Amino acid sequence: MAPPHRTPTLGISDHRPHTAGPTRRSLLAGVAALGALGAAGCSRVATASDVKGGDLLDRIRAQGVARLGIAGEVPFGYIDKNGELTGEAPELAKVIFKRLGVDRVQPVPTEFGSLVPGLASQQFDVVAAGMYINADRCQQVIFSDPDYQMLDAYIVRKGNPLGLHNYRDVVEKKAKFATGTGYAEIAYAVEHGYKEDEILIVPDQVAGLNAVEAGRVDVFAGTALTVREVVKKSSKAEATEPFAPLVGGKPHVDGGAFAFRPDETNLRDAFNVELQKLKKSGELLRILKPFGFSEEEMTDLTAKELCGG
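^ that's the sequence the OP posted. Answer follows.
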């Protein structure tokens, strides 16, 4: 993988002062009506055709709607307290799909770990959940270029009594470690020597905070932005400084992007064209800034680099 175009030691700043959003569980319960809407009349998107590069873009233009797979994670993609779809990925999707001639987007909520299988089984048209690009996922889906880059951070008890600042610390100090369902942080911990069957897997960062506060684990690993957001109102826990995990012995910066089915390269390519325009104009930062993203999270990384080739 080519090195990131921005330094991996930069922190996260300029967070939006909003309250903690819904967990994935509450999203699934609270927006059942939206899920039903996605299922009504067409529980799955139309099957792909034999057109080279896929004809999904033409089909969703004709339908006037693109179905977005989301996972109820603030700030990446969720339903707000007013029942409205929002988050950095859905808001960006609204702009890009509008430019592509698709007037409307519709959420299809699911668990994070079900996003890739749900895409493959055509439950939705695109994953719009801020999903990290990694080599394993690149074998199953095709990604747009990333719209942001991100570091990791930990939730620990106040004062960080075990002094946990990276994955090596977690292993060396034999800390009880947790992270989220399907999170890239699982692989990072394992690479540093943590036994996968000893990792506590929880649904999301809210459950991770609860586990740390209750003393069931010493540390929860997640993205720097979500970790900092979720601990804001906690009297028992805090976030560590952001850091770049080591992958193959080198600091690694993750990039989040939209995922498409492998045969839909035409839609992915058209999406990338509009994304690059937004990056060059500065419009991308304006769209993402309300969700806590700053100039530090803007990136010139490509999906090809992050896929390892």
